[in-house]
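ugh ok fine here u go
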Amino acid sequence: MTFVLLGTGSVRCCSSHPGMNESICVTCISSSGLGNRPQYPSALTTANKDGIYQFELDTKCKAIQDNILSSSFKKKRYPEDYYLHIVKKLQNCTWVRRPEESAKFRSELASCCNAVHNFIASQNNTPLGSNMSYEVDSKKTILITEDIFRMLPVSSPLSVYPFKNCAVVGNGGILKNSSCGAEIDRSDFVFRCNLPPTMGSISKDVGNKTNLVTVNPSIIAQKYNKLNEKKTEFVENVAVYGDAFLLLPAFSFRSNTATSFKVYHTLQEFKATQRAIFFHPTYLKNLAQFWRTKGVKAYRLSSGFMITSAAVELCENVKLYGFWPFSKSTEKMPISHHYYDNQLPKPGFHAMPKEYNQILQLHGKGILKLQFGKCESD
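structure:
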């Protein structure tokens, strides 16, 4: 296969075939980067048409991925329709897992952040008597007393990695009527975010299985009055997660600490099967710096993006569901922010489009797979 750059900015892909005295050339990239499907000479066989069209499609997909990459570092805030256009084009590209790319990226993450050992605060990485800096309130520290030390697992409960197939389930409204529940539940390890509903009719779309779920302390404050009361209601509500780990940012802001510890003690008091664990603040700081070098600059990363980053290190295969930061589908149909409500995040707190841009890149490189729409029914 040879390539000819035309003066118009288009690229011609030329290939010779057995039994033909001349090469067959088609426009594989137009000057816009996304040319129309070419008109083939009548002498070209169906097999060759398919082969050249597949090459053309692969070339277009590479152009789309390059477009995503180039927009990562631009300060310009792209409109929602820009991303929807990109996603619609990307959906036509066949996803292929690329082990070499996965290993390379996993190594990058491990060298900066090391989720295997540092994702969760443990007795191994949080010495008794040390002063630990908070993630965001970094000028403030907390003394690791014996009481705090006893709350920590000896080592990370996720160190029995790698998990074979992992599902990271976001809460996007795109999950509604997706029929993804059964597929999610077949995963070896399921991550969820912010205590989402999983029971009842919605389970056919989001599944029931949960191995780890993040907990935003603001939910505990608003819904359960910081567990100064409503302890029983809280324990009954989290029972739907089975023996899952409840992961809290106890050391991100000083205001989170007491509430996070209250969750731990409440679960202990009621002998619940769930167990509270805490993000390690150093891991989160290193992770934020890692993504900052790739263009994601926000006050704080979203919990879904944090979990996705850890999952790439902890799992052989990662598939994302419900990651959709847009108000409409690629077909311009309205979509609620969450599958259970339409409450929008605080403006400026997270860099959702930039995060999603990075996730699209990881999808395009075959490092993880994004589920864009409905799942295949069993």
